[in-house]
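User:
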Amino acid sequence: MNNTTTQYNPTKTGIDLINIRRVLYAMLRNWYLYLIFLIISVIGAILYLKTTIPNYLISARIMVDQERSPGEDILQGFELRPGLQNLENQIIILSSYNMIRKTVDELPFEIDVYRKGLMSQASYYPLSPLRITEGEDGLPYNNTFEFKYLDSNRFRLTSLSAYGSKMDTILFFSQEIQFDEGSFIIEPQSELESEYKSGSKIYIQFLNKDQLTQKYMSRLQIRNQTREGSIINISLQGPNRIKDIVFLNKLTEIFINDNLEKKNLEAKRIIDFINSQLVSVSDSLTLTETELQEFRSRNRIMDVSAQSQQIVSQVLTLENEKARLNLERNYYNYLEEYLESDEYTESAVMPAAIGIDDQMLIALMQDMAGLQAEFLSSGIGDRNPLQGQLEMRIENTKKNIWQIISSNRRANEMAIDENNRQIWELDQRASRLPEKERQLLGFERRFNLNNVLYTLLLQRRAEAQIQSASSTPDYELVDPARATGPISPDQHMVIVLAIALTLAIPTLGILITNLFQNRVVTEEDLEAITKLPVVAYLPHSRISYNTVVLTEPTSNISEAFRSLRTRLDFYTQDSKCPLIVLTSSIPSEGKSFCSVNLASAYSLSGKKTLLIGLDLRRPTLKKSFSISTDIGITSYFIGKNDLEDVIYDTGYENLHIIPAGPIPPNPGELVGSKKALESIEVLKEKYDCIIVDSPPIGIVADIYPIASRADVVLLPVRHGLTDKRALRGTLSEMEFHKIKNVSLLLNDIRTGGRRYSYSYKYKYEYKNKSNPNQAKDKKKASKSENGTPLKTEAI
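Assistant: Predicted structure:
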């Protein structure tokens, strides 16, 4: 033979890699699994689609107006600050606890009557089959009940709460039901009797406002429609589209109205501030006007000289400036009181509304208003880190405002002092005027000062009232709430998933089976372990005895052994008497079966063949030929009998056998002895071919001395039985002991199974016309004395 070593492949260790071709064969072979899973998946998909309550997507869109500039007019304080107009802040406000709670307070959602599907539940709103009325004690919040219709007057009500009171009783319609410090009344809706009389379970749940708020907060999704735009998309997913549409419409309505109310409230605060200033100014104006008129009447003087007119004109200008500075000082006083109050419930009057155009102060006031709105709208707890962060940011903003107020107040005082100095200079000039003109000038100055301030305040109040009357919200409802869907269950996705599971589950099972399959089932398994050739593929035998080639010469098994013999002839053509050793990695791989039939195939070819049983631990060959004596090769090894005495005629032409004989206590020493090797050489002179049935070489080392001298060593590998690890170990040991000329036999291949399938179109039959019962006679000869088939080694 050409192979000089076992050619064991040491790179393939552990679990073999999955062979794609083997997996494809397995998939085709197990096609019925895919059909079964397809039927199961289709049925499951249909049941899922029929029992699952569909979910809908309800969405609305709001546009936030960010085009207005807060500093364009004195009433910029009416508009939302940049901090409020920021889309992220609007999303926080819109999804805040306060905003959701305001919405829930205006909706009748505390009582929910619903049904259950396979994995979800859906409210009956607005057409509930049951009318639930609150009792005298209020509703039993945080409880759920199961309703079961019995007859026209009665029903069964069961509480489903895990904790607290329990109820499972029969009640009457219109009866007040007391439960857990609450009460309610259940009445049927006659127009929907088909629903509650259907026998399906109906569930009743009582949720307080806090629970409803948390429930909607968890479901509400708010995001920017586009990165560059200022449109907010608000959406809900749920099984009751009507209920969610009502909620979203109410939420957007409250959100827009709340914005308008804030703007109007700010305008009202400005008007209130101006009115408070007008009260004192109005009294002073009335008093100074009376004094002026009385002086003119008493002194019969209506006007002053040209010089006095010039002084009055200059003083009037200074008095106007003084009125403005006094108003500015009053605002700073108001702002300091506001900052000291630590109240976040409402924003301060903006500086621009009073005519103060300090852009830094305006910006800081706007930032603080935005932080206050975020603080009030976030609904966060006292211990939440975000609460502390917002408070810290508000305090820092306040400190910055304090610094600007302090700086502006000093500037205001300096401006007032300068104004007073200029007025004093004019007073000095006026002191040189006649006494009557000087007195008249004093009265006119006081009157003009109050009149200018009063006029300024009236102008500011009128502007505020106009703005309040014409104010519009900064938000616009682009799309009212509407439903799209259903979005789940997605029929196409369910079908795709069903098909995917149909393919995935059986395939995954096949992959796992192949991945952890540690038995030899295909030729690829052998290729992954060793490069040794497979010289024969022996099909499974349904015959219960070993002498198949002799008794069934036309069978496919006999044909396989004749093919093996022909191939071995090419390998051993240089040997006068080839020595062929059959061994295995573990027992029950068909070693003895192959030995008997290979020897039979050689004998039928006309070669004088000797079959030697060297498996001294489990001898089986004598049973195949009905040899009753215990004398065998063991008797020769121990010197009890001569070599000629242990050779038996099998009754078949050209076929002799040396059975194992009695089981010795030291089989390893006998098989590997010098006498055993010498006997093989002696027998080679008498026979044309010697077949040795040896013990499993993967378990015992008895046969190594003889195997090393063999012309061919055949290693049967039983299909579906041989362990890959055992085979690797055996080949590794054979390579270590330098056993040459090793080939494999893939034995016991099941017809139509796994990778291999044998079917012969032509059947060769050998008939003996002179003795047609010859095969039957030989078959009988292979049986025991009681006529029953002999038990042979499994193949």
